[in-house]
Amino acid sequence: MVEPTTARTLLARTAQVQRDGRAPSLVAGVVRDGGLAWSAGRGDVADPHIDVQYRLGSISKSITAVVVMRLRDEGRLGLDDPLDRHVPGTPLGNRTVGQLLSHLAGASSESPGGWWERVPGGSLADLQLGPEHVVLGAARRFHYSNLGFGLLGELVARHRGRPWVEAVTAEVLAPLGMTRTTPRPSGAAAQGTAVHPWADVVLPEPEHDAGVMDAAGQLWATLTDLGRFAAFLLGDTGDVLAPGTLAEMTVPAGVDFSAPGWSAYGLGLQVVRVEGTTLVGHGGSMPGFLAGVFVDRSEAAGAVMLANTTSGLDPLVPGLLADLKAAEPYVGPAWTPSPPPVPLDVLGVWFWGPAPHVLRAQAGGLLHLGPLPGRGGRASRFTRRADGSWVGLDGYYAGETLRIADDHLDLATFVFTRQPYDPAAPVPGGVDPAGWR
């Protein structure tokens, strides 16, 4: 739970967003320690407010992506596989699974036919996709595509031999205990509405099964269930996904340079920077509904929001996270000694040419190589491979191999030595025999 003064601050922000945005109803909460630590409902919300379903919209994409990554981890597909290998016969057949996950495949933003969010959908064959639904070259730029995730849903269905919704229910929702997340409203559920721009009146929005486009935005959920998904994004993955795979999903791939701030997309997850803080999650909108789930992994906290209005709300989730951080900042675990993953004499100063770098041991059996403090240069963390070499996790050397020898480090053709241009080490191009002068 949060402190009473924190709860008051969170409630005040939530109430203002609901009032100023004229949402018929809005529920919101913050997540710590595996679930909701605070929540509130504003407007016409049935009690208990945490058990009323709202439509998630594009948050469904993140749940779809989890199943795709499970297929990858099982060895059934690779992120570099062309779509045609798994869903043959589409005009996007030469685009990869990873590009579809990151909205880099150049697929059209929407499916053909009627506005898929407001009319019932059919099968993939019913879409009658053609060359005109490939609107950009592969990996040229970020281009958000609902169609792309419809195709990923089809991929999931074909690999699992059952409809997309049955696969995500069995592999994600049920194991996480998200029993009130369903493809259509069930039990207590809000009516989707549009609010007139010039008067305080509302209009019901339609609700239907989107067919092959289900994977892009079909799911409904309660605040409790969305809070559980936030806990998942914070690392409470259970048996659903390996923590390393979740971390992989949060790495930005496509950058949305049209956003007013820094905004990117990983593998089925949005990654945004808000006032210096990196948030991971997804927003959602469907006719009649807005939703959001984002987490600040550095603060071990998340925030969730659901509302039954088509548009008009100011962002709420980042503000709730900022309020929580200001009032009750995360207190991390205490530092404790731990044995380094390499002998102590390997650590310390190494030189790339004349530039000094430091190799440090970090928690979790990692190494960090970077310039001395105050000096510019490239830095990366490394984790050990089974063969004894090390592979870069981030920075310039992500994916590159580091090998440690007695007198040098070999990293992506660069050689680091104990002394600047040590003539006894295998420095590429050799060292002038006359030495320094």
UniProtKB/TrEMBL annotation:
Keyword list (alphabetical) reads: Hydrolase
**Alphabetical list of SUPFAM superfamilies matching this protein:** beta-lactamase/transpeptidase-like
The UniProt entry's coiled-coil ranges are: none
Q: Which residues form the DUF7586 domain?
A: 340-418
- Record keywords: Protein biosynthesis included? no
Keyword check for Hydrolase? yes
Write down the top EC class of this protein: hydrolase
**Recorded E.C. number(s)?**
3.1.1.103
Per its UniProt record, what Pfam families does this chain match?
A: Beta-lactamase (PF00144), DUF7586 (PF24491)
Citing just one GO molecular function, the answer is: hydrolase activity
Residues annotated as domain Beta-lactamase-related: 16-315
InterPro entries given in the database record: AmpC-like (IPR050491), Beta-lactam-related (IPR001466), Beta-lactam/transpept-like (IPR012338), DUF7586 (IPR056008)
The protein's name: Serine hydrolase domain-containing protein
What organism does the record attribute this protein to? Klenkia terrae
